[in-house]
Design brief:
The structure is a single chain. The protein is of the alpha/beta class and 291 residues long. The chain has two domains: 4-171, NAD(P)-binding Rossmann-like Domain (Rossmann fold, 3-Layer(aba) Sandwich), CATH 3.40.50.720; 178-286, Orthogonal Bundle (ProC C-terminal domain-like fold). The protein has twelve helices and eight strands. The protein has helices at residues 11-22, 37-47, 54-59, 73-89, 105-111, 144-154, 168-176, 178-195, 200-226, 242-248, 255-265, 268-290, and strands at residues 4-7, 30-33, 50-51, 63-66, 95-98, 118-122, 132-138, 158-162. The protein has an eight-stranded mixed β-sheet with strand order 3-2-1-4-5-6-7-8, with helices on both faces. β1 (4-7), α1 (11-22) and β2 form a beta-alpha-beta unit. The longest helix has 27 residues, at 200-226. The radius of gyration is 22 Å and the shape is elongated. The protein binds NADP nicotinamide-adenine-dinucleotide phosphate (NAP). NADP nicotinamide-adenine-dinucleotide phosphate (NAP) is lined by residues 8-13, 33-36, 39, 54, 67-70, 72, 75-76, 99-101, 122-125, 176. Catalyzes the reduction of 1-pyrroline-5-carboxylate (PCA) to L-proline. It is an enzyme of class 1 (oxidoreductase). Its EC number is 1.5.1.2. Belongs to the pyrroline-5-carboxylate reductase family.
């Protein structure tokens, strides 16, 4: 079984560690490097996982996952590169994976031994409960098998898809920042429910379950549509887009139509588009400073 080193045992490192164990990986195949002693102790006690220095953890791993803050990447890269050079001289195959937002694969490729395979991943916070979505972008030297190996790792904390690295800023703006947009929407709907006469706990339960249920319904329809039936055709007559599902719950002259008209009048679509573009621009600016 592949040996996995997680460098950085913060919230994302822990989410990955927990997910890997949950999906059946053995504790003997995992090692974590975490510089905060209290945090390292917590991880060792909670997951019975081995905690090691960066170089030791990286040297003997097939997958080296870098999960430190973007500003700490440069600092750990020298140690990782040294370990990678030793592993290379032992002919061990290594794949380097970074979840650090905004740090390009080219930075890793420049520091690691020539030709090192590097995969950049943008997960999101729902990964902490195994319900994230991770976008993978491969560097110059990654084989399809190596990319599949990384996809298998992130599969344990939610969905996985692959994009070109040039799309990572757009991914960051949509799924990276997306949970915050969602939480703001929940906050606004709960407050509105309270204004409409509901108690806060009741409004909260109603809003959160409505959001979760609607997302589950949409996911179910999308899955159905993507699964061809026995004849190889997409099942007919099934609403598969958000727009179709919205139309289905909007009866003519009804309550939902009245509510939706106000959302459109308030410019919801344009505001969401502005938010995504602003986040993408900010992600581009941060990437430039990191480089
Ligand atoms: N959390 C998310 O939802 C999310 C989503 C997408 C991407 N990411 C990316 O994932 C990365 C990690 O995020 P996070 O939220 O898990 O951050 P975090 O909580 O700060 O975790 C990073 C951990 O790595 C430790 N560390 C730093 N340098 C180290 C070193 N030289 N050796 C060993 N351990 C070291 C840090 O210790 P100190 O506390 O002492 O610094 C910290 O405990 C970031 O690059 C972020 O961009 C996170």
């Amino acid at each position: 079984m592949a040996r996995i080193a997680i460098i950085g045992g913060g919230s994302m490192g822990e989410a990955l560690l927990a997910g890997l164990l949950r999906s059946g990986r053995q504790v003997k195949d995992l090692v974590v490097s975490e510089r905060m002693p209290d945090r390292a102790k917590y991880l060792a006690e909670t997951y019975s996982v081995q905690v090691a220095a960066v170089g030791d953890a990286a040297e003997h791993a097939n997958f080296v996952v870098i999960a430190v803050k973007p500003t700490d990447v440069e600092q750990i890269l020298d140690e990782v590169a040294e370990a990678a050079a030793k592993a290379e001289s032992d002919s061990a195959e290594q794949v380097f994976v970074s979840v650090a937002a905004g740090v390009p694969t080219s930075l890793f490729e420049a520091k690691l031994p020539a030709g090192s395979p590097v995969v950049r991943v943008m997960p999101n916070t729902p990964a902490l409960v195994g319900a994230g979505i991770s976008a993978l972008a491969k560097g110059r030297f990654v084989t399809p098998e190596q990319l599949k190996g990384v996809a298998d790792l992130f599969d344990c904390v939610g969905g996985v898809l692959t994009v070109a690295e040039t799309q990572m800023d757009a991914v960051t703006a949509v799924s990276g920042s997306g949970p915050a947009y969602f939480f703001l929407m929940v906050e606004a709907m709960v407050d509105a429910g309270v204004a409409a006469g509901l108690s806060r706990p009741v409004a909260t339960d109603l809003v959160v379950q409505t959001m979760a249920g609607s997302a589950a319904m949409l996911l179910d329809r999308l899955d159905n549509a993507r699964r061809p039936d026995a004849d190889g055709a997409v099942p007919a007559g099934v609403d598969t887009t958000a727009a179709q599902l919205r139309a289905t719950v909007t009866s003519p002259g009804g309550t939902t139509a009245a509510g939706l008209r106000e959302l459109e009048r308030g410019g919801l679509r344009a505001t969401v588009a502005d938010a995504v573009f602003a986040a993408k621009t900010r992600s581009e600016q941060l990437g430039i400073t990191t480089e």
